[in-house]
Amino acid sequence: MVKTGFSRTSSRRRRRWRDFSEPSPEAVSLAEGIDAVLRDLGANEEQMRLVHLWECWPYVLGDDLASVALPLGHRHSTLLIGCEDTMLLQEIRFQQDEILDRVNAFMAGPFFTDMKVSLLLGKSALQGQAARPSDNRKTATAPVVPEATGRYLGDMDPASPVARCYALFAAARRP
User: Which of 73, 112, 127, 134 could disulfide-pair with 57, CB 3.0 to 4.6 Å?
Assistant: First the structure.
């Protein structure tokens, strides 16, 4: 006879009650787990510091500046930053020395020597913030083409250029 399910009297399975008030010795934080996985995949110390920089970007630059100067990555010793419009691009370029000082201080050494600022144009930032369109920009939408039924042709003068144009439009749109 095969037993299915869970039975309190079953000797094969006994329900163990664990005290979850204290973490188990094998429990690790999510950040430690991600670091361990990255190390196992071959990430070196430099790459680990860069990942930590992208995660702490608002802390490094401050919330106001980090919300407009989004990290896009790096190329050799050049920090790549993206912004949403040209006015912000110019402002970030004026603050280039301050940004490089803050980032290099966080990296505990002269990691970046130059900075390149470009428009996002749909690119996504490395800190998890997706590139979002600016509030003052209008998004392009497809024009709404009116349905051509030809119901107004009876009210129009057939000699009128507008009536002739509307008749051609209605004829072309009919199935």
Answer: 127
